[in-house]
Design brief:
Elements: H1 2-12, H2 16-28, H3 37-49, H4 53-65, H5 73-85, H6 89-101, H7 109-120, H8 125-137, H9 145-157, H10 161-182
Helix pairs in contact: 1-2, 2-3, 3-4, 4-5, 5-6, 6-7, 7-8, 8-9, 8-10, 9-10
């Protein structure tokens, strides 16, 4: 209750960060507040009106899931874009997911790569994993096990389990490719094979 009272002082002053914070508390039902997506959405909207990129990302999440507000992938993408343009890494990542899956925007692996890269360069681990996978699959970029390994290793260094598992898959694929190459006779050049399935 004490935290809520302190935060209300800043809410009364119309501070965007306070609106966003209280919105998160309502979304999660924290500090004795009754959980309410509707109240969360209302507070996020107030903060968005003041240009708060965190609130843009949070409100976009609600639009994406249809919690407390009518579901709209287009509105979510619009808000993620606004947040991404202000340098918010999570919004960049979420926009990348939208482009990868074609939700609220025209599907584009190239645009997904662009947004994942911007988020990953800010240290966003999920973006690193997604980048690694797209490089490994050659979606939106030239296929590159080296670049895939680079991004997956950065995420694995942060303890990400998906990155660790994907590195194991990459190791297995490269071992298969190396074995296939070593059995080729020196008189004939090695044939090209798919890195994914040999």
């Amino acid at each position: 209750k004490e935290q809520i009272e302190r935060l209300r002082e800043w809410l009364d002053k119309g501070e965007a960060w306070a609106q966003d914070t209280m919105g998160q508390w309502y979304r999660e039902g924290e500090f004795g507040l009754k959980q309410s997506y509707v109240m969360a959405a209302m507070l996020f909207e107030k903060a968005v009106a003041q240009g708060d990129p965190y609130a843009m990302n949070h409100l976009a999440n609600l639009y994406e899931t249809g919690r407390g507000i009518d579901q709209s992938f287009n509105k979510a993408a619009e808000l993620y874009t606004m947040g991404a343009e202000q340098g918010h890494a999570r919004a960049m990542f979420n926009l990348g997911i939208g482009y990868r899956d074609g939700k609220g925007v025209v599907q584009s692996f190239k645009k997904a790569i662009e947004h994942f890269t911007m988020a990953a360069e800010q240290g966003h681990v999920d973006a690193m994993v997604n980048l690694g996978i797209l490089y490994f699959q050659g979606q939106g970029v030239a296929q590159s096990n080296g670049r895939a390994r680079e991004w997956l290793t950065k995420a694995a260094d942060e303890g990400d389990k998906d990155a660790i598992n994907n590195l194991k898959i990459l190791d297995e694929q490269e071992a298969k490719t190396a074995t296939a190459t070593s059995t080729t006779t020196t008189t004939t050049p090695p044939s090209r094979c798919c890195a994914a399935c040999n």
